[in-house]
Design brief:
The complex is a heterodimer of chains A (about 350) and B (about 800).
Chain A: H1 35-39, H2 45-58, H3 63-75, E1 77-80, H4 88-99, H5 104-110, E2 121-124, H6 129-135, E3 143-146, H7 157-169, E4 174-178, H8 181-185, H9 189-203, E5 207-211, H10 220-232, E6 237-239, H11 251-268, E7 273-275, H12 283-296, E8 309-311, H13 314-327
Parallel strand pairs in A: 1-2, 1-8, 2-3, 3-4, 4-5, 5-6, 6-7
Helix pairs in contact in A: 2-11, 3-12, 3-13, 7-9, 9-10, 10-11, 11-12
Chain B: H1 4-11, H2 22-29, E1 37-39, E2 42-44, E3 52-56, E4 63-68, H3 72-91, H4 94-110, H5 112-123, H6 127-155, E5 159-161, E6 164-168, H7 174-187, E7 191-195, H8 202-213, E8 221-223, H9 228-236, E9 242-246, H10 249-259, E10 265-269, E11 274-278, H11 284-295, E12 306-312, H12 313-327, H13 348-363, E13 367-369, E14 385-388, H14 395-398, E15 405-411, H15 414-422, E16 426-427, E17 429-433, H16 437-446, E18 451-454, E19 469-470, E20 473-474, H17 479-483, E21 487-489, E22 523-525, E23 528-530, E24 537-541, E25 547-552, H18 556-568, H19 571-574, H20 577-593, H21 595-606, H22 610-630, E26 637-639, E27 645-653, E28 656-660, H23 666-680, E29 683-687, H24 694-704, E30 713-715, H25 720-728, E31 735-738, H26 742-751, E32 758-761, H27 778-784, E33 785-793
Parallel strand pairs in B: 6-7, 6-9, 7-8, 9-10, 11-12, 11-17, 12-15, 14-15, 17-18, 18-33, 28-29, 28-31, 29-30, 31-32
Antiparallel strand pairs in B: 1-2, 3-4, 5-21, 10-20, 13-14, 16-19, 22-23, 24-25, 26-27, 27-33
Helix pairs in contact in B: 4-6, 5-6, 6-7, 11-12, 20-22, 20-23, 21-22, 22-23, 25-26
Classes of the chains: A alpha/beta (about 350), B alpha/beta (about 800).
Chain lengths: ~350, ~800
């Protein structure tokens, strides 16, 4: 069977090293608030769930394809530590892993040693930005900081804006903001628009990822509407969760958000990125997400510029699967350097 | 390692993902001399010179196996084996049969991957579908019906199995259709002879081995292979009590004609041209996937495929753009590849048929669009196809294509959408997409289809009835409604006698009683007494041959007018059950006022004693009360499929029905046959007793004084079989009940084949109309209704 057509903006070899992020895609400039666009959104959850189930049986990748797709997944990981007990030592270790996510011998065996594959970004709290920036010096891996009173987003608005500015000043190139869930729950879409727009302005040149906390929004339609409003207000990425909600990234929610991104792209021409976060911990999960991205958004989105996993444990499982592909033996976690 | 990984890292393409099949091939190879027939629990070679045919893999053209052709001798043997097994099997306890069905379900699960692979090799359907849909549903059908076997003694009391059942199934869901047929049949205590489709017999033959392993008694299930000729031998076989057929409407018609008058029970699950309705408030992205599941499922080779997209004009362009985007990501390929959307068409003959219909549609003005995706050049494939600019008269809008071809039409209003949806001879299924529940349920109530899927499509389950309206056939498969198709009432008919009273020729005409004003009964059409079109009347006699008066001599034009009135009286079908009950009680009230008059008339006409006549009138009043009572109590069901869903099985009226009454107990039988239709909301055209029509013509005044809306009941007097023939041939009639002679029964069944109206005939047998079991009850209500299953998934 012959291959499907493939479209891609720029071959990876011809672009700056991995993790540069956003440099190839025009930023989303947003658009004026349009209530009609939001109100017209219709989501049928059971149909969405059927698509998710069906897709798992319609597409799969095996052998070399699986290995290549797992490497792609690594390049899209926002390697994350968001704990109260984070220390500079812990963050430096994470950054080392970000730079060399897979054992060199395995990369060699896979024939991708020269591709300089790193994770997409390192994601930390504000206090750890400086450490991370220094640890990643000389690479193009951006540091992302969670912000705006993460995870609840209920600190004074003025302080939330200040937090963004300080994080950007500290060297964060990506800011993961949290929205005020109450605006969604009360369908106060214009308030949500104004909030995200203000955050975006505070970010300046840093890219803004809008965390919707989908597990707290109450319905599928609300997720789609919040996605659309965040994009209208200029979000570069929309992201599911903080990782702290009871329900984090799920495939049905991802499908809904990806379709919102496609809709926004069709209307404005701006490509907005997608970041599922929380609970994605297996190589199999990761491939299913990538398949959904390819099917719903196309190959352009299979790129750290437009797709990220917010994950802390995922990498380890991918490493084990890659070793299995190379050696034919099932691998163990302790054979791979920890982050 | 190679540069391959690095390369794929850039292209992010999909690679091959083949399902392992060598062990299935080994099984096929272990039958170098081909397969025999499964008869009486053994593999039996056909007598004489062995005639065989080939079964090929449509994806490769490779020979899979040689199969035997069963001829007359083998069909006889198989039926004989089933008959022999029937005695013990039908008398086995429900629990005993349940254990066997349960064992079959388990064996199917234990061998599910093998069966899935074999099915995909034989049929061409993607392994995803055989693995995730067909085979799990096969197991589910056996589990569900193991349950019916278990509960039959308590839940289906008064019913018994039919005997030997002949089953003929199609090639699109080979083993699934086998399960739909065999599971309810043997659960009910029948024994079966099943003929799989000639293209796809292999999983049925594998199933035969599973029957042996499950310890099913020899002869309970017999499987014979062959083409249409073998099927015809089975259909014609005299020892068969019922034929269950799934396949084309054309063959369904032939079977209806062939079995007419044989007394064989019949269910037909036939073709479709199902509408897929999209409103402007639908979740359009989900709708696109719905379309993929509707028409690009199983290569479009699905009887209930949503093949007619009917979309609200305002969102049509957007939806079509989205469909095209989706199809440009479509993957066609080997059925055993785990990453394809569509596999191979079952046979080159079918592919050519699809192609020629598409060409004809384009020649008639349609615009064809196919995605620019790779299509394997070897093997039997057809690209998903979109036909726009399709007028309602276009061949693609009318004919069932049975391939991956979708037509597109737009509508402006809900009323227009319904009209377009119902503008078809078929009536199998409809899919409705809207986020407005009021709108969706309104349409669900209006479409003339046996299945309605709201915001979903092609959902199946053993607990839910499947089957169509109109020329999509009759009977249901699955659920409680499906069980009745394999059962009969133990005491449906009298053991002997006839319900007809022989005519006495040309009664001697005597002068009318001088003390009475001349009464000239006419026909009763549209709520008015109308002179017969032919302008003639015929003399009628009493039991003794004495002249009793004249009644109108109805002809085909009277039937035409009566049907027209009935058709227009749609309001009766829509009025509330409470209102219908009120009217039935009112009729009873008015009959009661004239009890003595009717009793006297009965005595005069039929010669019964005053006491017997009084009893019959009283029974008639009671019967009207019964159906007044039933009107709002013949409830549907809410099925429980294993998904987040409400599946409503609603009993809907058939629509316009013909009723041909017997002569015995002429008032009571007449009431017994019209009242269930009134109760369920049918509009009827009634031919009363030919021998004693005056009892019905007297009844006009009762109807007129009881607020029965014009057209709800129409009465035409005259020659029973002559008028029945006109009704059987009338395409606007949805059903016909005939209680006359055996020959008349045959005629009614045969002539009803053209529009496949539902029939219920007595085959010349008699009923005890006075009995509360033979003369009234659920069976009458079931025959007056058809079940519509509405699937309504939920979640937000």
């Amino acid at each position: 069977m012959s291959e499907q057509k493939v479209t891609h903006l720029t071959p990876h070899d011809e672009r700056p090293p991995y993790g540069a992020g956003h440099n190839h895609i025009a930023r989303n400039e947003g658009m004026p608030f349009d209530a009609g666009l939001v109100e017209d959104i219709r989501i049928n959850l059971s149909a969405v769930e059927r698509r998710v189930t069906s897709l798992k049986g319609r597409r799969t990748v095996k052998k070399d394809w699986q290995a290549a797709w797992l490497l792609k997944a690594i390049s899209c990981i926002d390697l994350t530590t968001l704990s109260g007990d984070d220390t500079p030592g812990r963050v430096r270790r994470l950054c080392a892993k970000a730079k060399a996510p897979v054992r060199a011998d395995l990369m060699e065996a896979l024939g991708v040693a020269d591709k300089n594959i790193t994770v997409g970004a390192v994601c930390v709290y504000h206090e750890m930005i400086d450490t991370a920036v220094k640890a990643l010096a000389g690479t193009n891996i951006p540091v992302a900081a969670v912000s705006t009173g993460f995870p609840a987003g209920l600190s004074p608005f003025r302080l939330r804006l200040a937090e963004i500015r300080e994080s950007v000043a500290a060297g964060a190139r990506e800011i993961d903001i949290v929205i005020s869930r109450r605006h969604v729950l009360s369908s106060n879409w214009e308030a949500l628009y104004d909030e995200v727009k203000a955050f975006r302005e505070a970010c300046g040149d840093a890219h803004i990822k809008a965390i919707l906390a989908t597990g707290e929004l109450g319905s599928a339609s609300k997720v789609a509407k919040a996605s659309m409003v965040a994009m209208m207000a200029g979000a570069d990425f929309i992201k599911t969760s903080t990782g702290m909600e009871k329900v984090n990234a799920t495939q049905p929610v991802s499908l809904i958000m990806m379709r919102a991104i496609r809709d926004y792209y069709e209307r404005t021409g701006f490509k907005v990125g997608y970041k599922p976060a929380g609970g994605i911990s297996t190589a199999k999960d990761a491939v299913q997400y990538l398949i959904m991205v390819k099917e719903e958004l196309g190959n352009d989105w299979l790129d750290p510029d437009l797709f990220r996993f917010g994950a802390s444990r995922l990498l380890t499982d991918i490493e084990r699967q890659l070793e299995h592909f190379v050696t034919g033996r099932y691998s163990a976690a302790h054979r791979h350097p920890m982050g | 390692m190679s540069t391959k990984v690095a390369e794929i890292f850039e292209t992010m393409s999909y690679g091959p993902a083949p399902e392992q099949s060598d062990y299935v091939q080994e099984w096929l190879d272990s039958h170098p001399d081909g397969f025999d027939l499964f008869i009486g629990g053994k593999w039996v070679a056909p007598e004489g010179e062995k005639k065989t045919f080939e079964s090929r893999d449509p994806a490769t053209g490779k020979l899979l196996a040689r199969l035997s052709i069963a001829g007359q001798a083998e069909v006889d043997k198989a039926v004989e084996a089933a008959k022999k097994a029937y005695g013990k099997w039908s008398k086995l306890s429900g629990h005993g049969r349940a254990r066997h069905l349960y064992a079959l379900a388990r064996l199917i699960q234990k061998n599910s991957r093998f069966i899935s692979v074999l099915e995909s090799m034989d049929n061409g359907k993607p392994i995803r579908e055989s693995r995730d849909l067909d085979i799990p549903l096969v197991a589910r059908h056996f589990y569900h019906h193991a349950g019916w076997a278990q509960l039959m003694d308590s839940e289906l009391t008064g019913y018994e199995p039919l005997g030997v059942v002949g089953q003929v199934i199609p090639w699109n869901f080979p083993l699934l259709m086998l399960a739909w047929k065999i599971a309810p049949a043997i659960a009910a205590g029948n024994c079966v002879v099943l003929k799989p489709a000639e293209y796809t017999s292999l999983t049925a033959l594998y199933f035969a081995d599973l029957c042996r392993e499950a310890g099913l008694p020899d002869g309970v299930v017999n499987i014979i292979t062959g083409a249409g000729d073998t099927g015809e031998l089975l259909v014609r076989h005299e020892e068969i009590a019922k034929i269950a057929f799934t396949g084309s409407t054309e063959v369904g018609r032939l079977i209806r004609r062939t079995t007419a008058g044989s007394g064989k029970k019949l269910t037909l699950e036939l073709g479709g041209k199902s509408p897929f309705l999209v409103f402007d408030d639908a979740d359009l992205d989900s709708t696109v996937e719905g379309l993929v599941d509707a028409i690009w499922f199983n290569q479009g080779e699905v009887c209930c495929a949503g093949s007619r997209l009917i979309v609200e004009e305002g969102v049509a362009d957007r939806l079509i753009e989205k469909v095209k985007l989706r199809l440009n990501n479509f993957r066609l390929g080997p059925p055993l590849d785990k990453a394809v959307d569509m596999g191979a068409i079952v046979d080159p003959v079918q592919r050519d048929r699809i192609d020629s219909l598409v060409s004809q549609s384009v020649a008639e003005g349609a615009t064809k669009w196919q995605p620019d995706v790779p299509c394997p050049t070897d093997g039997c494939y057809y690209l998903p196809t979109l036909l726009t600019d399709v007028s309602p008269a276009n061949v693609a809008a009318q004919k069932e294509i049975f391939g991956p071809v979708l037509t597109v039409t737009t509508f402006r209003t809900l009323a227009e959408a319904t009209e377009l949806a119902n503008n078809s001879r078929y009536g199998l299924s409809a899919s409705i997409w809207s986020e407005n529940i009021n709108r969706a349920l309104e349409i669900a109530s209006q479409v003339k289809t046996g299945i309605v899927w709201i915001n979903c499509t092609n959902q199946f389950d053993a607990a839910c009835g499947f089957g169509g309206y109109r020329e999509s056939g009759f009977g249901r498969e699955g659920g409680r409604e499906g069980m009745f198709e394999y059962l009969k009432r133990s005491d449906e008919w009298r053991s002997s006698g006839s319900d007809i009273v022989e005519d006495i020729k040309a009664p001697e005409i005597s002068a009318k009683h001088v003390d009475m004003i001349d009464r000239t009964p006419k026909n009763y059409i549209g709520g008015k007494q109308k002179r017969p079109d032919g302008g003639n009347s015929q003399a009628v006699a009493d039991h003794d041959g004495k002249f009793m008066g004249r009644v109108g001599d109805g002809n085909r034009k009277d039937i035409r007018d009566a049907v027209e009135s009935a058709f227009k009286a749609e309001g009766w079908s829509k009025t509330t059950a409470h209102n219908r009950a009120q009217i039935l009680y009112y009729i009873a009230e008015n009959l009661s006022i004239r009890e003595e008059e009717f009793a006297r008339r009965l005595s005069q006409l039929t010669g019964v004693s005053a006491k017997v006549a009084k009893t019959e009138v009283e029974a008639s009043i009671s019967r009207l009360f019964s159906y007044g009572a039933w009107a709002d109590k013949f409830d549907g069901l809410v099925h429980t499929p294993p998904m987040r869903n409400i599946a409503l099985a609603m009993n809907e009226p058939l629509g316009v029905v013909g009723v041909v009454c017997p002569d015995k107990a002429p008032l009571l039988s007449f009431i017994s046959l019209i009242a269930p239709h009134l109760a369920m909301g049918n509009r009827s055209v009634v031919i009363p007793s030919q021998r004693y029509p005056l009892i019905a013509t007297d009844f006009y005044q009762v109807l007129e004084t009881s607020d029965v809306p014009g057209g709800a009941v129409n009465i035409v007097t005259g020659d029973r079989d002559g008028l029945a023939k006109v009704m059987a041939q009338h395409d606007q009639l949805d059903g016909i009940w005939y209680f006359g002679s055996a020959a008349g029964s045959e005629m009614v069944e045969r002539l009803s084949a053209d529009n496949l109206k539902r029939t219920w005939v007595n085959n010349g047998k008699a009923r005890d109309w006075a009995s509360s079991t033979q003369g009234e009850g659920r069976q009458f209500l079931r025959e007056a209704t058809q079940v519509k299953n509405v699937w309504l998934p939920y979640g937000d």
